[in-house]
């Protein structure tokens, strides 16, 4: 299974493409960031995010897109703007006909690190460990995107294993 994980943002969007299969360790295919200029109007920034996401979907043809959900912080405006970015990401995935999964930041951290309140360096460290990399992907936003993809792979693997146990299917 190939998963495109996205940590959305309107200034910096982190992404990671991870491939995993039965009995194999997941491997990192690509990671990085999409950036937009803070001085550009929001509609222009959203276009860049949509086109960048569509290009990643076309290039990698993932089986699923995993997106970190928005969480309410101290600044409501930031949450609303982030939701716009998530909207164009979800639109690009829907237009590509790719399955979409959404995970809260705490769920991603708990799945990858084992603790929902993990710090960015801890997430980067565990991403490197799970993918057998010498160092964590950089910048941290890219490592976060990879963590979202890994969380989806780990959760999907657990679900499949549970299903096999319950049904006796192979």
Describe this structure as you would to a colleague.
- The chain has 170 residues and is an alpha/beta fold.
- 52% of the residues lie in helices and 19% in strands.
- It contains five helices and five strands.
- Strand 1 (2-7) and strand 2 form a beta hairpin.
- The mean pLDDT is 90.
Please name the defining characteristics of this protein.
alpha/beta; globular; five-stranded mixed sheet; 170 residues; 5 helices
Q: Give the strand content.
A: 15-25%
Helix and strand composition category: alpha/beta
- Radius of gyration of CA atoms, rounded to a whole number: 16 Å
The tally of helices reads 5
Which percent range fits the helix content? 40-55%
How far the N terminus sits from the C terminus, by CA atoms, comes to 17 Å
Number of strand segments: 5
Shape: globular
Show unreliable segments.
none
The profile of the biggest β sheet is: 5 strands, mixed
**Biggest β-sheet: strands ordered side by side in the sheet:** 3-2-1-4-5
Task: Average the pLDDT over all residues and give the rounded result.
Answer: 90
Order of helices and strands: EEEHEHEHHH
In short:
By secondary structure, the protein is of the alpha/beta class. The chain contains five helices and five strands, in the order E-E-E-H-E-H-E-H-H-H.
Question: Strands, helices and their partners?
Answer:
Blueprint: E1 2-7, E2 12-19, E3 27-35, H1 42-60, E4 64-68, H2 76-96, E5 99-103, H3 105-112, H4 120-131, H5 140-167
Parallel strand pairs: 1-4, 4-5
Antiparallel strand pairs: 1-2, 2-3
Helix pairs in contact: 1-2, 3-5, 4-5
């Amino acid at each position: 299974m190939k998963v495109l994980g996205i940590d959305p943002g309107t200034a910096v969007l982190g992404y990671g493409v991870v491939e995993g299969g039965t009995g194999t360790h997941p491997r990192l295919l690509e990671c990085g960031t999409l950036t937009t200029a803070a001085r550009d109007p929001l509609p222009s920034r959203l276009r860049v995010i949509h086109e960048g996401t569509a290009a990643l979907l076309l290039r990698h043809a993932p089986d699923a897109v995993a997106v970190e959900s928005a969480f309410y912080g101290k600044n409501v405006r930031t949450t609303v703007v982030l939701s716009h970015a998530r909207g164009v990401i979800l639109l690009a995935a829907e237009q590509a006909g790719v399955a979409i999964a959404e995970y809260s930041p705490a769920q991603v951290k708990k799945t990858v690190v084992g603790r929902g309140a993990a710090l960015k360096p801890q997430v980067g460290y565990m991403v490197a460990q799970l993918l057998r990399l010498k160092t964590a992907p950089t910048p941290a936003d890219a490592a976060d995107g990879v963590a979202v993809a890994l969380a989806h792979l780990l959760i999907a693997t657990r679900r499949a294993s549970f299903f096999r146990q319950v049904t006796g299917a192979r």
